Amino acid sequence: MIIDIRKLKAERRYEGELHFTLPPDNDAVTLPLTEAASEIRVDGTYRLMEDDALEITGKVRYLLRGACSRCLKTVEKRMEGEWNPCFVKDEPQDEEYSYERDVISLDQSVKDAVMLSMPYVLLCDENCAGIEYAATNERTE
Ligand SMILES: [Zn+2]
Questions:
Q1: Rounded CA separation 70/58 (Å)
Q2: Quick one: which of 5, 46, 116, 120 could link to 102 by a disulfide (CB 3.0–4.6 Å)?
């Protein structure tokens, strides 16, 4: 997804909504035996500041499919993560992204948001008791 800052300014659209999808991104899936099972749905609002910084507040949503970390049963889980990137034209600070020539690509920020929202474990149920051999990882003595 590309945003053209010049165009937003020309049309005086300094604030607005963003709705788009990106294809499933398995590079962002950090859990073993798990895959991205849907497109990444992205919804947010943007605000173009006077210094040409673009601030976004939004969410990423996607479906994960994989083996339950305890019992290995296949589960699907709807995931949701915060997507609040800020794009600046000059030197980016901390969590900011930079852009050039009035064009901003949002894709990397979406990928980062998906990665940050990745769960540490995927469970078929919070109370999953697991099976003996699947639960040995953390109990090596
Ligand atoms: Zn389970």
A1: 32
A2: 5
